């Protein structure tokens, strides 16, 4: 009887020791998994860094899993490096090609404009006008390619100073007034009379406004509505560009409109390349702002809106705005 009790006690002790051992191992594995998960998140946030995931405790099956994960991380890093090199090479090629094409194209356009249209018959004069328009369109496209390669390069920067964004937008709208009239579009600019100072680059801000007005001019059917929403409490200001569009031109995914060369359907191609919005997004972000697009139902046609938001410095004041 005593022998049986002794064996039961031994077995109980062994069972307790085994339970403690496995519970401890389970605790260590849980801790290791949490630490590994945290390490993976850090590596994901800083992917270019040559880091690997390590297991704090020895576990053959998990170590094999981490080995596969580390191999995949190495492959992803290599693809990332290759992509960056190809992207840099592409930008350099675009910049070089754009530069090489601008000079001869300017000469061609100059010669075309020197031709005396009065000496041509109606048909030839029409052909000449068409050639000039095509050459000017090509000149604009080349300029956009060059600007895209410039503003998306790693060494690009904008000058930061206090500028009056309201005045720049007001002047830009006035400069486009003749184009609005020629397209039979109603333009409604609700801009404040007072200055709106933001911390940015006047030339970059001008380029953003020009691109957005040109985009509206290209797709608007009857009207373009430009307005400003000030949010002093939130320390920001929004510039909104709204126009009506045809139902078939309504973007299915407005967020993708700022992607390079994204044109969505053929109905949105209308002589554009999509580069203007991409350039605007890059310039906006360089000045600490954000840009977004949305589309909603209107009275008879959908309404497309682009919103550009910039932070307003607390120290901004009327005398602080600089002239562009």
Mean pLDDT comes to: 82
Q: Characterize the largest beta sheet: strand count, sense, and whether it forms a barrel.
A: 5 strands, mixed
Uncertain ranges: none
What is the annotated CATH architecture of the largest domain?
Answer: 2-Layer Sandwich
How much strand?
A: 5-15%
Task: Kindly report the spatial arrangement of strands forming the biggest sheet.
Answer: 2-4-5-7-6
Helix run count? 7
CATH topology title of the largest domain: Heat Shock Protein 90
Element pattern in H and E: HHHEHHEEHEEHEE
Number of structurally distinct domains: 3
Cα-atom radius of gyration: 31 Å
Q: SS-based structural class?
A: alpha+beta
Tell me the distance between the termini: 102 Å
Globular, elongated, flat, extended or rod-shaped: what is the shape?
A: elongated
CATH class identity of the largest domain:
Alpha Beta
Helix content: 40-55%
List keywords for this structure.
324 residues, alpha+beta, Helix Hairpins, Heat Shock Protein 90, 3 domains, 15% strand
Commentary on this structure:
The model has no long low-confidence stretch (mean pLDDT 82). This protein has seven helices and seven strands. It is 54% helix and 15% strand. It has three domains: 2-58, no CATH class; 82-151, Helix Hairpins (Orthogonal Bundle); 161-320, Heat Shock Protein 90 (2-Layer Sandwich), CATH 3.30.565. The strands form two sheets. A five-stranded mixed β-sheet has the order 2-4-5-7-6. Strands 1-3 form a two-stranded antiparallel ribbon. With 324 residues, the protein is an alpha+beta fold.
């Amino acid at each position: 009887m005593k022998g049986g009790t002794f064996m039961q006690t031994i077995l109980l002790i062994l069972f307790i020791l085994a339970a403690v051992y496995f519970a401890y191992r389970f605790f260590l594995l849980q801790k290791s998994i949490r630490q590994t998960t945290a390490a993976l998140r850090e590596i994901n946030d800083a992917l270019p860094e040559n880091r690997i995931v390590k297991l704090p405790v020895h576990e053959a099956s998990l170590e094999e899993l981490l080995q596969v994960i580390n191999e995949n991380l190495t492959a992803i890093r290599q693809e990332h490096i290759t992509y960056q090199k190809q992207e840099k090479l592409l930008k350099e090629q675009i910049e070089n090609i754009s530069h090489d094409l601008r000079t001869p194209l300017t000469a061609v356009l100059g010669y075309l404009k020197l031709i005396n249209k009065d000496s041509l018959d109606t048909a030839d004069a029409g052909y000449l006008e068409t050639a000039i328009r095509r050459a000017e369109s090509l000149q604009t496209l080349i300029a956009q390619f060059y600007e895209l390669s410039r503003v998306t390069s790693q060494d690009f920067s904008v000058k930061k100073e206090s500028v009056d964004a309201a005045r720049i937008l007001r002047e830009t709208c006035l400069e486009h007034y003749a184009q609005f009239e020629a397209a039979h579009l109603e333009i409604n600019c609700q801009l404040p009379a007072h200055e709106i100072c933001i911390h940015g680059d006047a030339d970059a801000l001008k380029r953003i406004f020009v691109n957005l007005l040109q985009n509206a001019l290209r797709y608007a059917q009857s009207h373009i509505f430009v307005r400003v929403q000030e949010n002093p409490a939130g320390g920001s200001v929004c510039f909104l560009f709204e126009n009506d569009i045809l139902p078939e031109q309504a973007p299915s995914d407005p967020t993708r409109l700022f992607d390079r060369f994204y044109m969505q359907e053929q109905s949105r191609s209308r002589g554009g390349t999509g580069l203007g919005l991409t350039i605007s997004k890059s310039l906006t972000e360089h000045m600490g702002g954000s840009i977004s697009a949305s589309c909603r139902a209107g009275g008879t046609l959908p309404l497309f809106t682009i919103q550009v938001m910039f932070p307003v410095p607390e120290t901004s004041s009327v005398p602080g705005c600089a002239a562009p």
